[in-house]
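User: I'm designing a mutation panel for Putative two component sigma-54 specific transcriptional regulator and want to avoid disrupting the core. Could you give me a predicted structure to guide residue selection? Please restate the sequence first so the numbering is unambiguous.

Assistant: Good idea. Sequence first, for numbering, then the predicted structure tokens:
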Amino acid sequence: MSKILVVEDEAAIRRVLIKILSEENDSYQLSEAEDGLKAMELLKKEDFDLVICDIKMPKMDGVEVLQASKKIKPEIPFVMISGHGDLETAVHTMRYGAFDYISKPPDLNRLLNTVRNALDRNALVSENKRLKKKVSKNYQMIGESKEISFIIEIIEKVAPTEARVMITGPNGTGKELVAHWIHEKSERSKKPMIEVNCAAIPSELIESELFGHIKGAFTSAVKDRAGKFEAANGGTLFLDEIGDMSLSAQAKVLRALQENKISRVGSDKDISVNVRVIAATNKDLKKEIAAGAFREDLYHRLAVILIDVPSLNQRRDDIPLLIEHFAKKIAEEQGSVPKVFTEKAVKLLQEYDWTGNVRELRNVVERLIILGGVEISEEEVKLFARK
């Protein structure tokens, strides 16, 4: 149900506009204001999906209403109504953020099309904001321990820059979460973040996966294919488990970082790319370098900023917050009321040895919620947590 505010000092025109809109769609919630001051009172109190606003009005004209509204609620689309003498002013209102302008007397079809388009655009903007908020919520770092607070502080400083980041830590600690949060808080957040699990791709295919290939480059290359570097152009490329990447692929990645250029497998043509690389590994890359399994020059290119994500055993103080977070999230997924963990149950979970880290804790919380009662007790933790 769309809420529309009609701002027009001439009562006859205002009534016509209200009538046209109500006949077009009886679900529209229509409000009216006879001058700019009344319009601003309503805009401050209510949320509207669209404002149709005259330009020449007493007390406060339409241009002033538009500019004042954009300061408090910039997302509301404005359709300006202009008389013949206001046409030049109406065009200027587009620079101030108006969606469109319509000349008096308004053409019926033009008015209704503009209203539909403005409402559609507003709905799309609202949906994008909702989805972005949902994405950001999915990549929150939960915890108040000094270890997590330190990582959050680094992310806040590093994210707005173009610095490459190397994330280290055991499996299940949340390295991917850190990478996503850096991307979400960066200037590249409107562009894609492309993930590559280097450990999951066979060594003979990793170069094709990263850089693409041309038709005929190898037996199964039946057509040209872009790689992950091209897909991430303008955004972020997350190289997870980079310690498992082959040395030949490492050499090509190094070149891409040095020259901002890649070439597809089987081609000698250079393709320019603008990619921020974030890498992660659970391996000790210094040992891998000493063993000849990882290029030292690539390490120094990637590890401009180092973020070491601690194991869950190193941040036990965060376990109660994580349990509460997972309980709420699982309840949302299942469409149920979040279950409560007793104080003794939480304390017992804090004492466990979490070799699988946060990922293991999440699985245990879900298991307890499914198998336990309304309130998860210490006895149920002993019974189900280690199954």
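For picking mutation sites, this is relevant: The mean pLDDT is 90. The first helix runs from residue 11 to 24.
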